[in-house]
Design goal:
alpha+beta, Phosphatase 2c, domain 1, 3 domains, five-stranded antiparallel beta sheet, 23 helices, 12 strands, 59% helix
């Protein structure tokens, strides 16, 4: 009896730890992925191992199953949890249990064994296999990261484990909303900001990509919206060393570059802003006081070279993933409509007295009757007696039952076809996003360490003129023109024509120019920037139905090299003396074609004393623009603004296209007559 007091006191001291494991496992059950799986809670049970801590986690998982899971999902979940704990208890004391891989592998394997049985017994095992495999990976990963935290034995908590655990708990709060914003995703943004601020760009990008993909999986949207947004935001935030304000601004910029072009209904930017506000409100001691550069830090060029190599490897991995998604795609996934009649006949005709007559002696007539009725069924969505020829409908003694069976199978067939097409479209969209992210990372890596040339005499040689005219009856022009020079010295001229006219068209074209300018100012290659914008506008156009033509001229003033990039844009012209070159393209406007559709690219050399002219389709009909070419050939001035005004006034006199008009002119002055813009 004398030893019971210290023992009870020691057990009482462990009660808070057991309670923490109980509530942690219960809370993690709320983090679910498609298929009704709760892998993070099972990873918690596996990480706690045998003994009282494991029992507390098992009981917490059971309580969470009662609160957050439906009956069909709770059964396999509880079975896997019990098996995981039982296995850990059965091997307790063995040297095998001391290895760090045992609990993660055992948890993942037992989860796969239990869930795999349900997958094999489901109606669509191939469809249910992917969520099951994803859950298996998450069970193993969560057990691996939770184990150092929940098993004890370490003086200092593992920072990766803490980040993973905090992110898992934040995902559990993903469905909790405050003022229309997800509390869980706002906290996840806070964690990503802290990781990027303290550990740099690569840690921020990795944490953002991992946390975002987990958020996509838990949301069940079937895309990589959060993965792309958080990954890019974490990368940009980690590049901002020093002040927290710059880190928060860079993070919001990354979210904005992803969320605004896509026009997603998910409030990505407000949730990120809430997380950034919490990040700025944290006390300075949470980050160990003022950040100073360590003495043993590598020189900047060496660190930059390492960052570039990592970005290249990440881009290569995403490119390989993009290629792998294309290699395994079937040639055609369309189902033959004949399956409707086959299944209906199995239900109705097999027991009919005339089965042998219809399907053997008169098989050709039956086949022709059903084949002739197929177009009407697919167009209308249901079968009627008039769809079948008289010799077939008069002979069939169970025609009402046969029509009922056909209509039931036809509804299922149309639903399957719609699902397959939506799945294929989602697959193409995700594949294109992987490709775009790979190109952006490659361009970012290529731009690291480059020497930026300041604006010098070459820039002074370029002069720009622009003119706009709204459609008759409108107060604003739906076209937008813009010109700027990037830090790398690239002079860019933009002309966008929004669908329609008036204020709505102006907003679309202005948004397009603003987003493309942000990409180009970030030193992303023009073709990659336009392909990324086209993909985002295709997703946005699925809701709004809008599209925009984009005309970009990118010029190096010091060499005169110029490239025209077009998405559905009107012809452009290069004038040198009395010679005019016409530049056209055949690609659809941005937003009408998704995937990785590339713009039309034409490269040329702009000699001193020559002009580059960009117009919208309201200025001149592309099929009869001889008057414009004659006007340019006969122009002998050197003022681009005067030329733009002349083109617009002459268009008003000659054309009657009833559309918005936009003109932008670039003039490369001669060396002896340079004037500032």
């Amino acid at each position: 009896m004398g030893h019971r007091g210290p023992i009870l006191k020691g057990r009482a001291a462990e009660l808070p730890a057991w309670g923490a494991r109980f509530f942690l496992a219960a809370a993690l059950t709320a983090t679910q992925i498609p298929g009704g799986y709760a892998p993070f809670a099972l990873g918690c049970v596996a990480a706690c191992g045998p003994g009282p801590a494991g029992i507390a986690a098992l009981l917490g998982a059971g309580a969470g199953a009662l609160l957050f899971l439906d009956f069909s999902s709770a059964l396999p979940f509880l079975a896997a949890a019990v098996l995981i704990f039982t296995t850990a208890a059965a091997f307790q004391g063995l040297k095998l249990l001391e290895g760090p891989l045992f609990h993660p592998l055992a948890g993942a394997g037992l989860f796969l064994a239990v869930s795999g049985i349900y997958v094999l017994q489901s109606l669509s095992p191939l469809r249910d296999l992917a969520p099951c495999l994803a859950g298996t990976v998450l069970v193993g990963l969560s057990a691996w990261y939770y184990q150092p935290l929940l098993r004890g034995g370490q003086e200092r908590p593992d920072p990766d484990g803490l980040l993973f655990l905090a992110g898992s708990v934040a995902l559990a709060l993903g469905d909790v909303e405050l003022a229309g914003l997800s509390v869980g995703r706002a906290l996840l943004c806070l964690l990503l900001l802290c990781a990027a601020f303290q550990r740099g760009a690569m840690a921020g990008a990795a944490a953002g990509l991992g946390g975002g993909l987990a958020a996509d999986l838990c949301a069940g949207a079937g895309g990589v919206l959060f993965g792309g947004a958080y990954g890019l935001a974490g990368l940009l935030a980690g590049c901002r060393n020093g002040r927290r304000g710059w880190t928060a601004l860079a993070f919001l910029t990354g979210i904005g570059l992803t969320a605004l072009p896509a026009g997603t209904p998910v409030p990505l930017l407000p949730e990120a802003a809430a997380g950034a506000l919490l990040f700025l409100l944290l006390p300075g001691r949470a980050f160990g006081g003022k950040r100073v550069k360590r003495e043993d830090a590598p020189p900047f060029p060496a660190a930059l070279e390492g960052l570039r190599a990592r970005l290249d490897r990440t881009a290569a991995a995403l490119r390989d993933l993009y290629d792998s998604m294309g290699r395994g795609s079937p040639v055609s996934s369309e189902e033959n409509p004949a399956v409707v009649f086959d299944r209906a006949a199995e239900k109705v005709c097999r027991g009919c007295a005339l089965c042998q007559l219809c399907w053997q002696k008169e098989y050709t007539g039956t086949f022709n009757a059903l084949n002739d009725a197929t177009p009407f069924l697919l167009e209308r969505g249901r079968a009627l007696p008039k769809d079948f020829p008289g010799y077939f409908s008069d002979r069939c003694i169970h025609l009402p039952d046969f029509l009922t069976a056909i209509n039931g199978e036809l509804s299922a067939f149309l639903l399957r076809r719609q699902y397959r097409r939506q799945l294929e479209e989602t697959r193409r969209s995700a594949r294109g996003q992987y490709a775009q992210l790979s190109e952006l990372l490659t361009a970012t890596a290529a731009g690291l360490g480059e020497v930026r040339s300041a604006a010098g005499p070459a820039e002074e040689r370029c002069r720009i003129g622009a003119a706009l005219r709204p459609k008759p009856g409108e107060t604003v022009c739906g076209d937008t023109v813009s010109s700027f020079r990037t830090e790398s010295g690239l002079l860019c001229l933009l002309l966008a024509d929004g669908m329609g006219s008036g204020e709505a068209a102006r907003r679309e074209s202005a948004l397009t120019c603003r987003l493309l300018e942000q990409f180009l100012q970030a030193d992303i290659a023009p073709e990659s920037a336009m392909k990324t914008l086209n993909t985002a506008m295709a997703l946005r156009g699925a809701d709004t139905g809008s599209f925009t033509t984009i005309d970009l001229a990118a010029c190096r003033p010091e060499t005169g090299d110029i490239a025209f990039y077009k998405y559905g844009a009107a012809p452009s012209y290069i004038k040198k003396g009395g010679t005019v070159r016409r530049i056209t393209g055949g690609t659809l406007p941005a937003g009408l074609r998704g995937g990785t559709a590339a713009p039309d690219v034409t490269r040329a050399a702009l000699e001193p004393g020559s002009f580059a002219v960009m117009i919208s389709d309201g200025v001149a009909d592309p099929g009869r623009d001889e008057w414009l070419q004659d006007l340019l050939a006969g122009w002998d001035g050197d003022d681009p603004q005067a030329l733009a005004n002349l083109i617009l006034s002459e268009s008003l006199r000659r054309e009657d296209l009833q559309d918005d008009c936009g003109v932008q002119v670039l003039y490369l002055a001669r060396q002896d007559g340079a004037k500032k813009v």
